[in-house]
Write a structure and sequence with these properties.
alpha+beta; Alpha-Beta Plaits; Ion_tolerance_CutA
Length: 100
């Protein structure tokens, strides 16, 4: 199993991407929630709201998920893949049922 962690501008973007991933069976579940981002860019420190999208998918689906994300947004953001070593059997079964 993989988790793909994405930062976005708002919940609407996360909802749109999440629905598209579920429609294409590239994920069985997504979560999104507001966060505060503090970052340094071009010598300036900025604090602003963002939304994190967490995508639960299977190994080797990163590129397909990334393609969907990039078709939905037109800015540079963080898209990162995290390995999950252990998950409960029930969730694993659900994931394998949805994401072929």
């Amino acid at each position: 199993m993989k988790i793909i962690y994405v930062t976005l501008n708002n919940d609407d973007e996360a909802r749109k991407i999440g629905k598209e991933l579920l429609k294409r069976n590239l994920a069985n579940c997504v979560n999104f929630f507001p966060i505060t981002c503090l970052y340094k860019y071009k010598g300036k420190t900025t604090e602003e709201p963002e939304t994190v999208l967490i995508i639960k998918t299977k190994d080797s689906y990163y590129k397909k998920v990334e393609e969907v994300i990039k078709k939905q947004i037109d800015f540079e953001n963080f898209i990162g893949e995290l390995d999950v070593e252990n998950i409960n059997d029930e969730f694993s079964s659900w994931l394998n049922e949805i994401v072929k």
